[in-house]
Design brief:
The complex is a heterodimer of chains A (326) and B (361). By secondary structure, chain A is an alpha/beta fold. Chain A is built from twelve helices and 14 strands. In chain A, helix 1 (6-20) runs parallel beside helix 7, helix 3 packs parallel to helix 4 (91-99) and helix 8 (212-225) crosses helix 12 (313-323). Helices cover 42% and strands 10% of the residues of chain B. In chain B, the strands form two sheets. A six-stranded parallel beta sheet of chain B has the order 2-1-3-4-8-7, with helices on both faces. The radius of gyration of chain B is 20 Å and the shape is globular. The chains are: A alpha/beta (326), B alpha/beta (361). Chains A and B meet through helix 3, helix 4 and helix 5 of A and strand 2, helix 7 and helix 8 of B. The complex binds thiamine diphosphate and magnesium ion.
């Protein structure tokens, strides 16, 4: 199987879908001539032209609303946010205009649109540029929320998101763009939205993670395997809908659960997973559920402070050893 | 100030009457609302004038009935009546062709009716019933006609980028259709309006921005909220031609709309129309409207009622006799009364629909 970076996989997904469907277009800041602020849209302007690959002014509320209106009018726009931090300026359109219109219209007006871009911490870019929005968007009925880790999932899920008739939030990670993974070839390699993936099977403890934390979970699993602890790692891939079945059946096997996310703890993805696990697998739990999250503070700049504020492999190994004492 | 719209008026046919560049740009009158009914200057067919009257009467009688039903507790929530502003949506809608799209805020009953939605289904949405245009899930503020009318939006100003996106889709599909995007004098102060103006002008999108300047945003008069009250000049920074129009005169509205829409179809980009109008009732049903004097409201009602205006023209030109007019009004009231009966007797939405239409599976 050929290897692709996440960056290339995302570009290929968009290019393939744009070849298949004239109504798919890409709009956002620097997506056309500059080839993407993080070079994700390389070559798209050249292939599809400026009608379909559109550089916008720096006008998040405006171009998000415009994208939603275009979707109501029959297009399937991909709206790229330079990063999701800036989408806070347009969250009204994502929620009030995109997510709610199908319902408010009694099913008359669908909004087929993808909002995508890097999410979460990057590398020492400070508090305003380093926030995970997974739990924010996962709160909203009418949205689907995806956050892939590997390049093949990035590609297959972005293709699925573009074909999906609903508004989809597609959370990428800047630090993963350059990482390479094996990716199957072919235009029909779609990954279904709403399905988690067991990326390592094990018997002693279940770890759920998404995006960059999947890699950290696998590293931690590798380390503790030397102590004879066999970890099962689930890549959630989809945050909403959440594949709770896969989590529950894993917990029924391992009897222990650790949830990892980079975002803040309060009302986070881990809180949701814990609540559902307690409801569906209470009797199977041998230990309290652990949540590993970013620290409950704005993200600091200094290297040591930033590292201390985000989940690290050592936090995960500690947590695994701890939970396995029960 | 003198440059707004130069291109617009040079490139389109010369102004038919006195409504030209000079009048538009040097219009220092606060607004056009002091005018008396004029005699017709239009060459519009009698049939068209009659259609205007019918549409405006339908909206008026519909809204009066909605007000009554609200008072009786049959309609709930927020309910924003369009009484006084009927000429705006009627004149604009008359300038459109199939495939043109319309979007507005929450004050949308008139827009739905003018776009051709049956009064009984609009009323059934207000009563929250299964036969409502949004199956009872939208309510007064959220109504749609697929392919034609895109709501019905509750966040002040949000419809402006959405309408700009509808124009983007029209241009993308090379459809030669125009997006009509209505918003209020209050909404005109939202930042996203200017973001939209910029993109629409930059990409020459086929859109007519229609500001319905009814002088108030809830209780805030325009002079208390707006540094420069000539809202039609707000596109100037983006090179968007603007024009102030008497929104109580349906013929003037139609003429301005026709011209603006033509301009868009020629690929010349956005146009901004500021329609001077007035709402005769409170902002919503719960508004006692203490921020304006009784005298002000009654003067507007007596001197500038848009329906009286068109009625006078129609009677003077003997398009209808007084008796025939009364007959028409009676028929309209009957249609609305039937709509109200229908909306009350229609059943509640099935509970089984509660969780449908959230996501398309
Ligand atoms: C973003 C936002 N802020 C405030 C409100 C509450 N609100 C509803 S209508 C309104 C006044 C708007 O006035 P205008 O734009 O002039 O329209 P009109 O009601 O006169 O038609 C306000 C403040 C809202 N719905 N959305
Ligand atoms: Mg107003």
């Amino acid at each position: 199987m050929p290897e692709l970076t996440v960056r290339e996989a995302l570009r290929d997904a968009m290019a393939e879908e744009m070849r298949l469907d004239q109504d798919v277009c890409l709009i956002g800041e620097e997506v056309a001539e500059y080839q993407g602020a993080y070079k994700v849209s390389q070559g798209l302007l050249e292939e599809f032209g400026e009608l379909r690959v559109v550089d916008t002014p720096i006008t998040e509320a405006g171009f998000t609303g415009l994208g939603v209106g275009a979707a109501m009018g029959g297009l399937k726009p991909i709206v790229e946010f330079m990063t999701f931090n800036f989408a806070m300026q347009s969250i009204d359109h994502i929620i009030n205009s995109a997510a709610k219109t199908l319902y408010m219209s009694g099913g008359l007006i669908p909004v087929p649109i993808v909002f995508r871009g890097p999410n979460g911490a990057a590398s020492r870019v400070g508090a305003q540029h380093s926030q995970c929005f997974a739990s924010w968007y996962s709160h909203i009925p009418g949205l689907k929320v995806i956050s892939p880790w590997s390049a093949s999932d990035a590609k297959g899920l972005l293709k699925a998101a573009i074909r999906d008739p609903n508004p989809v939030i597609f959370l990428e990670n800047e630090l993963l763009y350059g990482e390479s993974f094996e990716v199957p070839e072919g235009e029909n390699e779609i990954v279904p939205i709403g399905k988690g993936k067991i990326v390592k099977s094990g018997s002693d403890v279940t770890i759920t993670a998404f995006s960059i934390m999947v890699g950290k979970a696998l590293d931690a699993a590798e380390i503790v395997s030397k102590d004879g602890i066999n970890v099962e790692v689930i890549d959630l891939r989809s945050i909403r809908p959440l594949d709770i079945e896969t989590i529950i059946s894993s917990v029924k096997k391992t009897n222990r659960l650790i949830s990892i996310e980079e975002g803040w703890p309060t009302s986070g993805i881990g809180a949701e997973i814990a609540a559902l696990t307690i409801k569906h697998a209470f009797d199977y739990l041998d230990a309290p559920i652990e949540r590993i999250t970013g620290l409950d503070i704005p993200l600091p700049y200094a290297e040591n402070l930033e590292r201390a504020a985000l989940p690290q492999v050592s936090n995960i190994t500690d947590s695994i050893r701890n939970i396995c004492q029960h | 100030m003198h440059i707004y719209g130069v291109q617009y008026f040079q490139n389109i046919e010369p102004p038919a009457t006195s409504v030209g560049l000079t009048e538009m740009t040097s219009n220092t009158e606060k607004n056009n609302l002091g005018k008396k009914n004029k005699l017709p200057i239009s060459k519009q067919s009698n049939k068209a004038l009659l259609e205007y009257l019918k549409t405006m009467l339908t909206i008026r009688r519909f809204e009066e009935k909605a007000g009554q039903l609200y008072g009786m507790g049959i309609i709930g929530g927020f309910c924003h009546l369009y009484i006084g502003q009927e000429a705006v949506v009627t004149g604009i809608q008359a300038a459109l062709k199939p495939g043109d799209t319309v979007i507005t805020g929450y004050r949308c009953h008139g827009h739905m009716l003018a776009a051709g939605s049956p009064p009984k289904n609009v009323m059934a949405e207000l009563t929250g019933k299964i036969d409502g245009v949004s199956s009872g899930k939208g309510g007064s503020m959220h109504m749609f006609i697929k392919g034609k009318f895109y709501g019905g939006h509750g966040i002040v100003g949000a419809q402006v980028p959405l309408g700009t996106g509808l124009a983007f889709a029209n241009k993308y599909k090379k459809s030669n259709n125009v997006s009509i995007t209505y918003f209020g004098d209050g909404a005109a102060n939202q930042g996203q309006v200017f973001e939209s103006f910029n993109m629409a002008a930059l990409w020459k999108l086929p859109i007519v921005y229609v500001i319905e300047n009814n002088q108030y945003a809830m209780g805030t008069s325009i002079s208390r909220s707006t540094a420069i009250e000539e809202l039609y000049s707000r596109g100037a920074a983006f090179g968007i031609p603007g024009k102030q129009v008497d929104g109580m005169d349906v013929i003037e509205v139609y003429k301005a709309a026709k011209k603006a829409v033509q301009n868009c179809r020629l690929g010349k980009g956005p146009i901004l129309l500021e329609l001077m109008t007035y709402r005769f009732r409170g902002h919503s049903m719960s508004d006692p409207a203490k921020y304006r004097t009784k005298e002000e409201v009654s003067k507007m009602r007596h001197e500038r009622d848009p329906i009286e205006h068109i009625k006078t023209i129609i009677l003077k030109n003997k398009i209808l006799s007084e008796d025939k007019f009364k007959q028409l009004d009676k028929e309209t009231r009957e249609i609305i009364s039937d709509a109200a009966d229908f909306a009350q007797s229609s059943s509640e939405p099935l509970l089984s629909t509660l969780t449908s239409d959230v996501i398309i599976d």
